[in-house]
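Input record (Table S2, row 175):
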Amino acid sequence: MGDKIRVMYSEEEVDKRIRELGEQISKRYEGKTVHMICVLKGGVFFMCELAKRITVPVTMDFMSVSSYGAGTKSSGIVKIVKDLDQSIEGRDVLVVEDIIDSGRTLSHLMKILNERKPSSICLCTLLDKPDRREVDDVNVDYTGFQVPDEFVVGYGLDYDQLYRNLPYVGVVETE
Ligand code: PRP
Ligand code: MN
Ligand code: MG
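Output record (PRP complex):
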């Protein structure tokens, strides 16, 4: 519990960036309804704040996934723990994540979602850690910030399930 957290992006900086993304996304989806899909649990804070900055009609659904096999993410296989409530066929889908790290979660998830025949599908992430990428088939359409390979928390990102509720993006300082 005594972890030191250093601020990487302050609440004001994150808010400003989310407003910018909201504006871009609103333009991209003019005349349409954006069907936002939140990847639980990390995506939930970003999803809510981003949704508030989108000016076209928005609907939302939630999905929870976990990695299979060997107990590590490296299997690249994703198990659906909680599926979407609604069909995405014919919808304009925007998948919302807190961070893309190895890319394995999203690589697999985007494949699963694409098979369900959305009219379009885009990916929006608050943070991207390109240095950690292990796959090359994740196309990120909207990124809040590119971050170096540090242990980031806050705004949905956890360290052992803690710190998701920090209103800023921070780094856990290890000594
Ligand atoms: C984290 C994060 C992304 C994923 C990124 O989720 O929220 O969903 O890992 O990692 P990857 O690009 O290497 O696949 P996590 O599995 O920790 O679950 P959580 O969102 O509930 O914290
Ligand atoms: Mn996650
Ligand atoms: Mg996590």
